[in-house]
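Holo prediction. Input below; ligand is flavin-adenine dinucleotide.
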Amino acid sequence: MTGLREPLASGMLRPGGLWRNWGRSQSSSPRFLAHASSVDDVVETVRFAADRGLTVRPIGAGHSFTGLAVTDGVLLDVSAVDGVLAVEGMLVTLGAGTHLYQLPALLAPYGLALQNMGDIDTQTMAGATSTGTHGTGATFGGLATRIRAATLVTATGDVLRVSATENADLLPAVKLGLGALGVLVDVTVECVPAFLLHSIERPEPTATVLAEWDERIATIDHFEFYVWPHSDTALTQTKTRLPGDAPRHPLGKVTAWFEDRVMTNGLFSVTSNLGHAIPGLVAPINRLAVKLTGDREFTDHSPVVFATERSVRFREMEYAIPVERIPDAVADVRRLIVDKDWRISFPIEVRAAAADDLMLSTATGRATGYIAVHRFFKDDPTEYFREVEAIFRAYNGRPHWGKMNSRTAADLRPAYPRFDEFLAVRDRLDPDRLFANDYLKRVLGE
Ligand SMILES: Cc1cc2nc3c(=O)[nH]c(=O)nc-3n(C[C@H](O)[C@H](O)[C@H](O)COP(=O)(O)OP(=O)(O)OC[C@H]3O[C@@H](n4cnc5c(N)ncnc54)[C@H](O)[C@@H]3O)c2cc1C
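Structure of the complex:
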């Protein structure tokens, strides 16, 4: 440990308090909370924990809904290990704790951007890639598919470099590793030249959108839609890529503030609370929400268009199914809600992604459609999620690793052609399960 400080003495490690995730679906009381701001800090923390028989869970922005970060050992926050470390052409090496919202400013001097993004930018690079965070677009993979190299601190406290030329066999596991293989300290992501997106948001008949699903994802760069329960209307989002020097037509600052803060989040907060208190109001509220939101057109820098603000807390379950089964699965979920006479205040979100070959990617080996269901955080999601999960499983669905699910290693193995390869990497890098917790034991095994 030459040159390393004692983490407790340095103040980097403190007694842990109560930790809660964004969706308020998980909480834990770790023995220690470590704030690392360098690779050495991470090494020290890992060795400190290993010496005392404690487990370690790395943490990003706490935006996963599952128990990935729950630990009674050491919770290791690497968000201060951030910033640009190197740029070589389109390849940008970032501190693993870099938040996605930092990227526009960090990448501006190089004229670069992420190729695709999900619908928020609050996550860290490490957290987002480790759970398979994705956006939409039938020809685009999730963030992990753009990772070209990574450095991680393993269970022994060693620093391991993984790239196309160093430990290359580990790369398809490390890019999307659930924090089960070690602590990422940097990632190298392949970016693209900065671009604009032209976005059209429209209410449309749900039946039309479902009938045209195949055609729309084949012809539109980034297509997604939200189906509102208790309404026959879907809000569609059609995003088309434009060169970075194309004319911008951004939403005015006041318009953006009014539509995103007041109408979408403000109104949604009021209606979610109202629907929670008086479930009978959910159906008329949903029909009103469809009328008041989601009808606009603008062109702006890609991160501005991809990422939205989400200030109303919710819980979410999202499944990946074969892309061509999306219309049937959406119809099944809508029928279930009607049959059960439930009042569901949050929309069903539908997206698409290209097939990839990562060991634990929800899109591994097949073109993928994603369906996400949500519930306001004050509403009990148990019954809705359980019944919807049964529908998704019938379509050979794979759960988003960061979103609520009830799956086990035994029933996930048949859904993932490379599952056992990942477990072999885990055995190799973390044989004593320094990075284990209850969620990982459930979905990966002991
Ligand atoms: C409002 C909201 C919107 C969302 N939108 C989308 C979306 O559009 N698309 C989508 O796919 N998902 C979405 N998600 C899910 C989210 O992207 C993932 O759960 C993501 O993992 C959260 O990133 P994080 O930085 O908060 O990671 P955390 O939740 O803190 O951690 C996630 C995992 O990464 C591991 N990890 C974190 N840091 C490290 C590290 N340094 N080394 C190794 N492992 C590490 C953790 O151990 C944990 O296993 C959304 C979630 C919320 C709450």
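The mean pLDDT is 93. That is the main takeaway for now.
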